[in-house]
Automatic annotation (TrEMBL):
It comes from Paenibacillus algicola. GO terms for molecular function: endonuclease activity; nucleic acid binding; zinc ion binding. It holds the Pfam family HNH. Residues 1-27 form the signal peptide. This is HNH domain-containing protein. The keyword Signal applies.
């Protein structure tokens, strides 16, 4: 009988504890659901002009396109001791981490994607999306979205615009939620989206903060992406300008005889079936921007691509 009473008492205690936990969880969710899921915290004028180091910069060889518009994936982890860490991961790894969300843990992690897109005349849009959540879910995520510009493709950038946007609560902190901001672009430069992500709990205590960055894109003063082209006969890639501040100069001469000599040299060096009436000889560094007639600066381009895409890009350099 005593054993039965002891078991009954223990069962009653467990049931009460479960009910209290359920009530607490429901109360938390009720409070959580009454707050807005998105808050625009405005501009960060103090960030303008600051130079920041880019931790995640890919090295490109001469046959790769450095101006590919693509998503990058980052895993932000927030540890028990308040420290945080960011790792660049693949899309496959990002999706795999979502399976960890069921693992009980007081620490947590968030996988986000970052992307910078040319978005029409004089516009570039930065987007960051929650891909998966692991461990303990934060109550707030502050996305400080910054646009950086540099004169070369480098490991640092200077902030030219900065805003902060917040996702919060059960409706904001969920897979698929995203923040986005469109920046003005009026000068040629190597542009990078920089994200400072800060996680906080329900009472506002910071769980951790860290930084990631998008790929760097070369945009002209109309925010047009530098065009990409690989010559099929020579396998040469049309090099991008190594600087965004080339000075305009008087053009050196380039005659029809120069064109004929280059075509002859090219045909002998790279056997091809080009119809030269449909191909132009392009100076990768234009003559009015300090370019020379050296053959290392020349590449054949389809005439429509040359006149319709490449030349207009440099008009707005």
């Amino acid at each position: 009988m005593k054993r039965f009473k002891w078991f009954f008492s223990l069962l009653l205690v467990l049931m009460l504890a479960l009910q209290l936990t359920t009530v607490q969880t429901n109360a938390t969710e009720l409070v959580d659901s009454t707050i807005p899921s998105f808050v625009d915290l405005g501009e960060n004028s103090n960030d303008i002009g600051q130079e920041v180091v880019l931790e995640f910069v890919k090295e490109y060889n001469e046959f790769e396109n450095p101006n590919e518009v693509t998503d990058k994936y980052f895993y932000f982890t927030f540890e028990d001791d308040g420290s945080s860490k960011t790792s660049e991961i693949t899309k496959y790894e990002a999706n795999m981490i979502s399976s960890l969300s069921a693992v009980p843990s007081s620490a947590g992690g968030v996988v986000v994607s970052v992307r910078l897109d040319p978005a029409g005349v004089n516009k570039a849009t930065f987007t960051s999306k929650i891909i998966s959540i692991a461990g303990s879910k934060p109550n707030k995520l502050d996305f400080k979205i910054q646009l950086g510009k540099s004169m070369t493709r480098s490991n640092s950038t200077t902030i030219v615009s900065s805003v902060t946007k917040r996702l919060q609560g059960i409706l904001g902190i969920k897979v698929g939620a995203e923040v986005t901001h469109t920046f003005d672009v009026t000068q040629t430069g190597f542009y990078t989206g920089v994200l400072d992500l800060t996680a906080s709990n329900l009472i506002g205590s910071t769980l951790g903060t860290d930084r990631a960055n998008s790929p760097t894109l070369l945009l002209n003063n109309k925010a047009k992406l530098y065009p990409v082209y690989t010559d099929p006969a020579s396998a040469r890639v049309m090099r991008e300008p190594d600087r965004a501040d080339w000075a305009r100069t008087p053009s050196i001469d380039w005659t029809y005889n120069d064109t004929k000599k280059y075509r002859k040299w090219y045909n002998e060096t790279y056997p091809n079936v080009y119809d030269w009436t449909k191909n132009h000889v392009h100076h990768m560094r234009p003559r009015n921007l300090g370019g020379t007639n050296d053959y290392s600066n020349l590449i054949p381009l389809p005439s429509t691509f040359h006149t319709g895409t490449v030349s207009p890009w440099f008009v707005n350099y």
